[in-house]
Amino acid sequence: MARPDPVDGRVPYTPTSVTRIPSIVSTPMAYPFHDIEPKWQQYWEEHQTFRTPDEVPDEDAEKCYVLDMFPYPSGSGLHVGHPEGYTATDIVARYKRMQGAHVLHPMGWDAFGLPAEQYALKTNTHPRETTKTNIAQFKRQLKRLGFSYDWEREINTTDPDYYRWTQWIFLQLYKKGLAYQSEEPVWWCEELGTVLADEEVIDGKSERGGYPCERVATRQWVLKITDYADRLLEGLDDLDWPQSTKQMQRNWIGRSEGANVYFDLVDVDDSLEVYTTRPDTLFGATYMVLAPEHDLVDAITTDEQRAAVETYRQEALQKSDVERQQEGKTGVFTGGYAVNPVNGEEIPVWVADYVLASYGTGAIMAVPAHDERDYAFAQTYDLPIREVVEGGDIAQAAYVDDGPHVHSANEDISLNGLHTDAAKEKITEWLEQEGEGEHEVNYQLRDWLFSRQRYWGEPFPIVFTEDGEDKPVPEDELPVTLPDIETFEPSGSPEGPLSNIEDWVQTTDPETGAPARRETNTMPQWAGSCWYYLRFIDPGNDELPVDPEKENYWMPVDLYVGGSEHAVLHLLYARFWHKVLYDAGVVSTQEPFQTLVHQGMILGEKEYTTYETEDGERVSAEHVDDGVDTRTGDAVTAVEVDEEDVEKAGDAFVLAEQPEVQVEARSHKMSKSRGNVINPDDVVDAYGADTLRLYEMFMGPLEQDKPWSTDDVEGVHRFLNRVWRLVIDDESDTLRVTDDAPDREQLRVLHETIQQVTEDIEQLDFNTAIAAMMEFVNAANKWEALPRAVAEPFVLLLSPFAPHIAEELWSRLGHDASLAHADWPEYDETLLQREVVEMAVQVDGTVRATIEIEADADEDEVLAAAKAEDNVARHLEGKDIQREIYVPGQIVNFVTG
RNA sequence: GCGAAAGUGGCGGAAUUGGUAGACGCGCGAGACUUAGGAUCUCGUGGGGGUCCUCCCCCGUGGGGGUUCGAGUCCCCCCUUUCGCACCA
């Protein structure tokens, strides 16, 4: 029964109560969001309120390109996670528009991909149909949230007018020699009927679906992203991106600096090249290791050792990468020896699978004294360990840190006494002089496997002549469109479904007219998303992917918001293409996305979980790990309990009736199997789009993961009701603002709100901006009357967050046009000043009183007033004041002896 | 194991050139209006204590030390959680 949940590996969840779904019946006193939201959405559409002109603006105004990561339109529709990032960017876009900037804020669809194809396999529905239906659903859902997209610029990666240019960019890569074919050992997944890229396979199983995969060699297209490794690395420095994302990209690129060193082989007329980042430890090399796949294994292996080496090699090739890592280090001696160029010493050559064929030269010099892996191996096989860097105890462990070098000299050169950096430099120089090696840079980044054996992707603009030569389809013949297809059965081989469409596959050589065959692989889903931000700038262009003048105006993207799951792949691939396009003169910037923000994940409502054994006995959560009682090893079942049956005891939650039983209190990722998914449509039905937008921004910091709370949604909804009633009289449905001049206090409250909201939007601190508006409403509710001159700026402040209610109030306040292009309110410093300020008075650092004092009082007056406070005087009695600390407007501290 | 981020009331979270901890919201309590309240409004709400209870005291931002007149904020050590990487020579 207790099988781990496929989503998060936890014990199955037994719901004892259903997640509360917002009541569909709205409360009678609620403001009429059901009427005003569709009304304003229609208004914006009819008036093309958010249309960004096709032509580059003449006047000299700030431009702002605000971009969301466009969604894959899945069949399950919009998730509450989507509106989080989309609302954040929408607030910025609307704010910038009101500040007079030219704003580009588009939306589109990343619509190629595996799910539609798998659905086609099951139902025989053409992926084009599925995609069309899903896009319609997504678009309807997005439109009812009131985002200010310029829908005239909508793009769809599966549209031939779009992928024509994806193919065109591929041809630029091809012509620059950055796209090549290669027999690659790739992951073939029988179940999915396709090969997958390394990054799409986790622990030997497909990332999507978790199906087993195996390694097979097939002809693939590969993009030479490694040529751009250094530029991709250096470009990160100037980007305003999360540090963690930059770090992940740096790690992924994995640049290291070291040296290649040549070791002559004994009795074999060849030499062995190794890569090392520690050439300074060369004198400490006591053996060599080849990867099992290394070319020289056969030549080096002696006859006596051949059988053992062959056996080991066969075993290693069967193992997956994970299996190779699981056990301790294993290896076998080849019987051969290599000569250390630095001292002429003959050292044994081993084969071991802890050395990877795919990195460096696939061979290493082992320095067990100063490398943990080599140390472990040397201990297992009783190989010598020779110290060449002082500082550790090599009888105990490898010493990998810096220290003075020892035992590192020959007739020519000595590293003795040098530290690592200097020693590296000196030995590398010497190796280069002697022709025994050279400085070398290596990367963990691999070239990008760019072809997939699928139907629903961009066809490659490549044909093969009868003698197998590949030729590009001329640019003016693009796009190469996908053929229609009757059945979606996999071809059963690593070749994709297109290979079965003979009519389509058969074509002619564009140069000679001779018979030729089309490439039947298609591009991976990443392709379309690598450049879509450029197409939004000029979506209708049929001459070029993007017009250079427009590109020059709008690029780079000023704010890019999307999930951190794209921290490496999408964002690295897009940067790579961008740099290629830069070199091709297509774009004018080195980097596509200047500022990047990842929105956090929205989790389900907090759940209280207890565990019980088969006999129904409660097990305290502290004893449960992975669905098992850690004391007995018995499986336990998770049972949800109501919040009311739980109380806090110390740091933990416990059952109220059984305080010895700890309860697990946490929020889980939303998932169908857990039954905690919130559908945005339900929330909009019950509370309106403005409430959903505002709530998602009020939950907490944008970048943080946050649990959903329907109670909190209601709180935000109440706030919007209060805003409505602040401006509109409920009984008469008329305005309740006056044309009286606001008083000083009202202006101060307003201007404080303007300042806070403006600064918070700039910082993307939307939660505190909303808190500031709540404070405004709380204050304004206490006023006798609301002056129009205060109400109107407030409505403008609210409008980026809750645009529908703001438009309606703006209109009722007597404005004919939308507020979307109204001027953003500015605050007046002089109005922020308070006449009377409150200051804390401390005695020896503890607050003993607060005093209210004129803002312009001088220090002496403040100190006198402070000392006059009864409680302060009492604490000062009988003591000498040693120091008087005075921080204007904030604090007074009397320090006694 | 390595790297990064984060630990603040019953809950989500505010506040870091060091200056009144707990803004704002939820929840909870009391009251008003009301036939009713799961609507709305008002007030209260970190914990503990006190014979001046519209006042005062003590404790309090994961734990322990330190710097400072003053530390959620700065420094050192430790614990926990989340995410990423994980034989890359």
Any idea of the CATH class of the largest domain? Alpha Beta
**The CATH topology of the largest domain:** Isoleucyl-tRNA Synthetase, domain 2
Binned, the helix content reads 25-40%
Number of helices: 27
Largest sheet: 7 strands, mixed
Percent of residues in beta strands: 15-25%
What does this 3D model show about the protein?
The chain has five domains: 1-19 and 604-677, no CATH class; 108-124 and 157-224 and 447-529, HUPs (Rossmann fold, 3-Layer(aba) Sandwich); 256-442, Valyl/Leucyl/Isoleucyl-tRNA synthetase, editing domain (Isoleucyl-tRNA Synthetase, domain 2), CATH 3.90.740; 682-828, Orthogonal Bundle (Isoleucyl-tRNA Synthetase, Domain 1), CATH 1.10.730; 834-896, Ubiquitin-like (UB roll). The chain is 32% helix and 20% strand. The strands form twelve sheets. Strands 1, 26, 27, 30, 31, 32 and 33 form a seven-stranded mixed sheet that branches. Strands 11, 12, 13, 14, 15, 16 and 17 form a seven-stranded mixed sheet that branches. It is globular. The protein binds one RNA strand of 89 nucleotides through helix 7, strand 12, strand 16, helix 11 and strand 34.
